[in-house]
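Why should sequence recovery work at all? Because a backbone constrains its sequence more than one might expect. Tight turns favour small or flexible residues, buried strands favour hydrophobic ones, and helices have their own preferences. The token representation captures these environments compactly. In the example below, the structure is given first.
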């Protein structure tokens, strides 16, 4: 067993487990778009970043690919982590603003602006469809092409694949295709229709090392029940 600390809690996990698996097993929510059980981890979307280490040696790592290590100190919702996730969500909104999954995450993280050039692409290059096609459908009909800003996903030479069975697995698993957000002002990029604009929470900003990670929010549930 591996002994480590997650959000101040001393825990033991099986050797070979990732930080993401350990945190989720204990009930600490970590968002991710590129990770799915049954598929190999990729660390492509970076939304699952967590903070490890102490002081000046602390750093951000992708929890879906980083293995649990003996004595590791992990924080899943520190100020640094939340800022990083918000920045990543802004970039994702610039790439694919009509993904309801991304819009919901943006609302959950109280994002009110998107400061990057709007692109209106239909792909965030998370690679879920590629791994689904190869690892679950055993087809390898699609894959990554090009580099940098020219990187894309498709069939070799844009020719219809002979091994594609039109199973739809790639569309089923895609966070951009699953549900489309029908916001009425696309030029603003952020819908906010699903946002809770004034959650009755504690002043989270006063806790630099740990912000609220409750899901659902206990304070919100209490108010709702009343």
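From this structural description, the recovered sequence reads:
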């Amino acid at each position: 067993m591996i002994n480590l600390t997650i959000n101040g809690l001393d825990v033991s996990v099986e050797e070979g487990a990732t930080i993401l698996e350990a945190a989720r097993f204990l009930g600490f929510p970590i968002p991710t778009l590129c990770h799915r059980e049954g598929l190999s981890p990729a660390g492509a979307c970076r939304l699952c970043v967590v903070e490890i280490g102490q002081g000046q040696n602390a750093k951000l790592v992708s929890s879906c690919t980083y293995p649990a290590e003996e004595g590791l100190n992990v924080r899943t919702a520190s100020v640094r982590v939340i800022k990083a996730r918000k920045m990543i969500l802004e970039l994702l909104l610039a790439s694919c603003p009509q993904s309801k999954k991304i819009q919901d995450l943006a609302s959950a993280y109280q994002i009110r602006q998107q400061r990057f050039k709007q692109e209106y692409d239909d792909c965030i290059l998370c690679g879920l469809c590629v791994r689904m096609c190869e690892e679950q459908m055993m087809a390898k009909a699609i894959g990554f092409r090009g580099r940098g800003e020219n990187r894309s996903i498709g069939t070799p030479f844009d020719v219809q694949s002979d091994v594609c069975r039109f199973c739809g697995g790639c569309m089923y698993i895609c966070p951009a295709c699953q549900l489309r957000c029908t916001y009425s002002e696309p030029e603003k990029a952020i819908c906010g229709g699903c946002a809770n604009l004034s959650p009755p929470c504690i002043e989270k900003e006063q806790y630099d090392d740990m912000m609220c990670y409750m899901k659902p929010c206990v304070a919100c549930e209490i108010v709702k029940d009343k």
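A few observations help interpret the result. Residues 128-173 form a domain with the Alpha-Beta Plaits fold (CATH 3.30.70.20).
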